[in-house]
UniProtKB/TrEMBL annotation:
SMART domains, alphabetized: DYNc, GED, PH
Enzyme class name: hydrolase
Designated gene of the protein: dnm2a
Pfam families, A to Z: Dynamin_M, Dynamin_N, GED, PH
Domain of life per record: Eukaryota
Domain spans labelled Dynamin-type G: 28-294
Compartments, as annotated in UniProt: Cell projection, Phagocytic cup; Cell projection, Podosome; Cell projection, Uropodium; Cytoplasm, Cytoskeleton, Microtubule organizing center, Centrosome, Centriole
Keyword annotations from UniProtKB, A to Z: Acetylation, Cell junction, Cell projection, Coated pit, Cytoplasm, Cytoplasmic vesicle, Cytoskeleton, Endocytosis, Endosome, GTP-binding, Hydrolase, Membrane, Microtubule, Motor protein, Nucleotide-binding, Phagocytosis, Phosphoprotein, Synapse, Synaptosome
GO molecular function list: GTP binding; GTPase activity; microtubule binding
Topology versus the membrane: Peripheral membrane protein
Protein family according to the UniProt entry: Belongs to the TRAFAC class dynamin-like GTPase superfamily. Dynamin/Fzo/YdjA family.
Organism listed in the record: Gymnodraco acuticeps
Catalytic activity: GTP + H2O = GDP + phosphate + H(+)
Descriptive protein name: Dynamin-2
One cellular component (GO) term of this entry: microtubule
Length: 756
């Protein structure tokens, strides 16, 4: 019956595979097994039935085996069968087994003769079998029949190769004796994947159907058409015997009598027949497992190590223990607080390399998006000059003013300061959104306890929303404070005397010449008629925008001066995944070649915002939406007398200077206010108050109730862990006690014709 320890290993590995497949993972152990290959009606199924000693496989003409049947034979005192797809049912009647195989085959393949690579797993327990894993595969065919696809031959071939290509798979090549062995489909495909013949065992069936006066003696003696592992002859029941329900035991006795009485085979009768084939397969599989043990052991050990940490917390797990629930609640809330702080403050472990999140995203909002929104509001030159002109005239009334009025300056400045409220409130909303996303991201670790996750999210989100009102009130208060007193004695304010002597354009603050502000990839959107869109490496400096073929910066394509350039938003195309903005010349000149504007595309809106912020640093500002048509503007706005024009220019310079001071202050104070009143407050709340809120929100037992998925996963992990440990123990015993036999010497198998 083979090595006892080895027979214990295979059922254990079967359990191991079940444990892995149940939790949706694969152990990828490539366990040793025997694949049965051959042409249609070669007698493959009969050989398997002889092993089991029962009729249980479908019969008929054409392709009968249309799905791989993984047959796990387990030596057992009781005799029954069970399928993996209905494990709870034990089949004692083997006619029912056949019906179930046919029904399960048709469920996937339909009633026609189509095939499917999805296997049927059948386990047979019997005192008459050895512990073996065999796979009955569809018979090879050349011609499609009925509703079969025209490429049925290639489909079957691909399916066979899936199994027999693995080095751990022995190949049982079944060929009928009444056909030309040199053209055997089974031996051809076996040679293709096993050219040295190390894994191929030849089986010759239908020896009793050979023409009178002929025999296969030279083949069975491995003299003619040799194989490295040789051939074994068997005599299966005829169709008449099967139809007549001839008992398999009687058939085995008849097979024995055939070999003993046949003059060509009697001298090798002890090496022929189904019992010898079983014994040989058991030995070969035992040796094969023995050879694969070192690799199998290392795979099992690596699986065990990967589970060790996760299983540690489950080893002494008692789901209903109240002290465990209290401890778990404390640990999870504490871990949630640590994770939230790491997301906000940054951390070296578990860094996301795919996208910005948490603190990094908030930092971008503070220092790129928010300043850009502020500048967008302030720089609306034509509208601003019109408002200043109206303010000066309205202050003077019917008189013609000789001096530039202070009141006009204050009115215009306050109007500009009020406009800061919108971007400040928008910044708070964006930070809140990111904070809530961070909370959700950090509660992923609480998935094992759905109610705890739900309550934690609700409590922290509610706190953030409560702080939203206070933060907005405080930010609006900062702006109201700026409105309450216009400090013209500020050290950075230019004052009236300097304002009259300055020219806006000449005084424009520009970064250091040739200072590189940003580098990166952008796509220039051009119509297909003009060459199509293309990606370039861009370099933005304080004076120009240049683009190159690639990052090496050797082949410059173009250099565009920044003078008179502005930014413009562009709607994303219907089919486009890119986000687009444009640069254009305010003097209506072509920007690049014959293009009035150049559209630049990025992969995300965040990249667009970041590039816009970089252009602002270079002094390129966004275009303003003109609510009034230029032609409809009052004539007096454009036809100013020289004195009024000087006054407008003076106030324009003063407003520019003062708003610059306010902007600088706002850019500094608003992020600080948000950090203090919202972000730091959220961190403090999670560390000091969240646990108390959770205790007061309901029953602790319901909070710490496990999800059904988590309970199932825990059970499967523990099962798998113990199965792995047990397998390693058994492998350790076997490797010291199993005696292997050497592989036969190589045989010249060049006589097998190539498969293709």
């Amino acid at each position: 019956m083979g090595n006892r320890g080895m027979e214990d290993l295979i059922p254990l590995i079967n359990k191991l595979q079940d444990a892995f497949s149940t939790i949706g993972q694969s152990c990828n152990l490539d366990l040793p097994q025997i694949a049965v290959v051959g042409g249609q009606s070669a007698g493959k199924s009969s050989v398997l039935e002889n092993f089991v000693g029962r009729d249980f496989l479908p019969r008929g003409n054409g392709i009968v085996t249309r799905r791989p049947l993984i047959l796990q034979l387990v030596n057992n005192t009781a005799e029954y069968a069970e399928f993996l797809h209905c494990k709870s049912k034990k089949f004692v009647d083997f006619d029912e087994v056949r019906s179930e195989i046919e029904a399960e085959t048709e469920r996937i393949t339909g009633a026609n003769k189509g095939i499917s690579p999805i296997p049927i797993n059948l386990r047979v327990y019997s005192p008459n079998v050895l512990n073996l894993t065999l796979i009955d595969l569809p018979g090879m065919t050349k011609v499609a029949v009925g509703d079969q696809p025209v490429d049925i031959e290639h489909q079957i071939r691909d399916m066979l190769l899936q199994f027999i290509t693995k080095e751990s798979c022995l190949i049982l090549a079944v060929t009928p004796a009444n056909t030309d062995l040199a053209n055997s489909d089974a031996l051809k495909i076996a040679k293709e994947v096993d050219p040295q013949g190390l894994r191929t065992i030849g089986v010759i069936t239908k020896l009793d159907l050979m023409d009178e006066g002929t025999d296969a003696k030279d083949i069975l003696e491995n003299k003619l058409l040799p194989l490295r592992r040789g051939y074994i002859g068997v005599v299966n029941r005829s169709q008449k015997d099967i139809d007549g329900k001839k008992d398999i035991r009687a058939a085995l006795a008849a097979e024995r009598k055939f070999f003993l009485s046949h003059p060509g085979y009697r001298h090798i009768a002890e090496r022929m027949g189904t019992p010898h084939l079983q014994k040989t397969l058991n030995q070969q599989l035992t040796n094969h497992i023995r050879d694969t043990l070192p690799g199998l052991r290392s795979k099992l050990q690596s699986q065990l190590l990967s589970l060790e940490k996760e299983v540690e917390e489950y080893k002494n797990f008692r789901p209903d223990d109240p002290t465990r629930k209290t401890k778990a609640l404390l640990q999870m809330v504490q871990q949630f607080g640590v994770d939230f702080e790491k997301c906000i403050e940054g951390s070296g472990d578990q860094v996301d390399t795919n996208e910005l999140s948490g603190g990094a995203k908030i930092n971008r909002l503070f220092h790129e998006r928010f300043p850009f929104e502020l500048v967008k509001i302030v720089f609306d030159e034509k509208e601003l000059r019109r408002e200043i002109s109206h303010a000066i005239k309205n202050v003077h009334g019917v008189r013609t003013g000789l001096f530039t009025p202070d009141l006009a300056f204050e009115v215009i400045v306050k109007k500009q300061i009020v406009k800061l409220k919108t971007p400040c409130l928008k910044c708070i909303d964006l930070v809140i959104q990111e904070l809530i996303n961070t909370v959700r991201q950090c509660t992923n670790k609480l998935n094992s306890y759905p109610r705890l996750r739900e309550e934690t999210e609700r409590i922290v989100t509610t706190h953030v929303r409560e702080r939203e009102g206070k933060t907005k009130d405080q930010v609006l208060l900062l702006i109201d404070i700026e409105l309450s007193y216009i400090n013209t004695n500020h050290e950075d304010f230019i004052g009236f005397a300097n304002a009259q002597q300055r020219n806006t354009a000449a005084n424009k603050k520009r970064p250091i010449p040739n200072q590189v502000i940003r580098k990166g990839w952008l796509t220039i959107n051009i119509s297909i008629m003009k060459g199509g869109s293309k990606e370039y490496w861009f370099i933005l400096t304080a004076e120009s925008l240049s683009w190159y073929k690639d990052e090496e910066e050797k082949e410059k394509k173009y250099m565009l001066p920044l003078d008179n350039l502005k930014l413009r938003d562009v709607e994303k195309g219907f089919m486009s995944t890119k986000h687009v903005f444009a640069i254009f010349n305010t003097e209506q000149r072509n920007v690049y070649k014959d293009l009035r504007q150049v559209e630049l595309a990025c992969d995300s809106q965040e990249d667009v915002d970041s590039w816009k912020a970089s252009f602002l640093r270079a002094g390129v500002y966004p275009e303003k939406d003109q609510t009034d048509n230029d032609d409809a503007a009052p004539a007096d706005t454009f036809s100013m007398d020289p004195q009024l024009e000087r006054q407008v220019e003076t106030i324009r310079n003063l407003v520019d200077s003062y708003i610059g001071i306010i902007n600088k202050s706002t850019r500094d104070l608003v992020p600080k206010t948000i950090m203090h009143l919202m972000i730091n407050s959220a961190k403090d709340f999670i560390h000091s108050e969240l646990l108390a809120y959770l205790y007061s929100s309901g029953d602790q037992n319901s909070l710490m109730e496990e999800s059904a998925d988590q309970a199932q996963r825990r059970d499967e992990l523990l099962r798998m862990y113990h199965a792995l440990k047990e397998a390693l123990v058994i492998i350790g015993d076997i490797s010291t006690s199993t005696i292997t036999t050497p592989v036969p010497p190589p045989a010249n198998n060049n006589w097998i014709q190539d498969a293709r």
